[in-house]
Write a structure and sequence with these properties.
By secondary structure, the chain is of the alpha+beta class. The chain contains ten helices and ten strands. The chain has two domains: about 140 residues, Regulatory protein AraC (Jelly Rolls), CATH 2.60.120; about 100 residues, Arc Repressor Mutant, subunit A (Orthogonal Bundle), CATH 1.10.10.60. The strands form two sheets. Strands 2, 3, 5, 6, 7, 8, 9 and 10 form an eight-stranded antiparallel beta sheet that branches. A two-stranded parallel sheet has the order 1-4. Keywords: Transcription, Transcription regulation.
């Protein structure tokens, strides 16, 4: 079961925040008057907005516009950093929630705003750092690291089974028998509620789990088998199609916390 955090986390200066989240810890649904950027200095986060869940590994930053209901969840122990963005700067970012590729410069500026040395900086210096972050993230491509989040209780139960054992080879018909729902009904629910088929959704879920494992230090072959791929080449192809780089390159490029 997820752990729910009710407090606002550690606030640093000028509204920036840092949260040290335990594995599976989840924040309540909330919104902010300002848009904000979310960066995992360590670990992997997910952000859920309007029935969609985005995965945020350590080389990505999530953007949540102002007044948008959302919640976060940690996958592994996670150091979550939050930087708020003024309306004048927010116009350079997407008008909807998105996950953006993070450059090395953007990462360092995000850490400088939220790290232990953040408080001594002047307001002007902090404003300049925010401009650097937005200048770097604004042109960055949006990453398709999202997973439709089921609302129907039958799909939620199926998702729970798959999350607990992403390597299972059970077919949709076999999973349906476990939860007492016919295959045709489940297929229809996937199309109507999540605008995708079961096979594609399962691949997305497995890649999300792979991101968590790779960030935690697991090897590519170990991750492939644990996430349901018997053929490493198929895993590499599926991962690359969704993440934009091979799992080996992703693992090598992970920043040090």
């Amino acid at each position: 079961m997820p752990i729910f955090r009710q407090d606002a986390g550690g606030q640093t200066h000028d509204g920036e925040q840092t949260h040290d989240l335990e594995h599976r810890e989840r924040t309540p649904v909330h919104r902010h008057a300002q848009g904000h950027l979310i960066y995992p200095a360590r670990g992997v986060l997910s952000a859920s907005v309007s029935g969609q869940t985005w995965i945020i590994p350590a080389n990505r930053t999530a953007w949540i516009p102002a007044h948008v209901d959302h919640y976060h969840r940690a996958h592994g122990r996670t150091d979550m950093r939050v930087v708020f963005v003024t309306a004048s700067l927010a116009v350079q970012l997407p008008d909807r929630a998105a996950v953006l590729s993070t450059t090395a410069l953007a990462r360092e500026a995000l850490l400088a705003l939220t790290g232990p040395d953040a408080v001594p900086r002047s307001r002007e210096a902090r404003d300049r750092l925010r401009h650097v972050v937005v200048d770097e993230l604004g042109p960055a491509p949006e990453e398709p690291l999202h997973l439709p989040e089921p609302q129907d209780p039958r799909l939620r139960e199926l998702a729970r089974i798959m999350e607990e054992d992403p390597a299972t080879t059970a077919t949709l018909a076999e999973l349906g028998r476990l939860i007492g729902v016919g295959e045709r009904t489940l297929s229809r629910l996937f199309r109507e509620e999540m605008s995708t088929g079961f096979t594609r959704w399962r691949t997305q879920l497995r890649v999300h789990r792979a991101l968590v494992m790779l960030t935690g230090g697991a090897g590519v072959l170990e991750t492939a088998h644990a996430c349901g791929w018997s053929n490493p080449s198929t895993f590499i192809n599926s991962f690359t199609a969704l993440v934009g780089q091979t799992p080996g390159r992703y693992r090598r490029n992970l920043p040090q916390a």
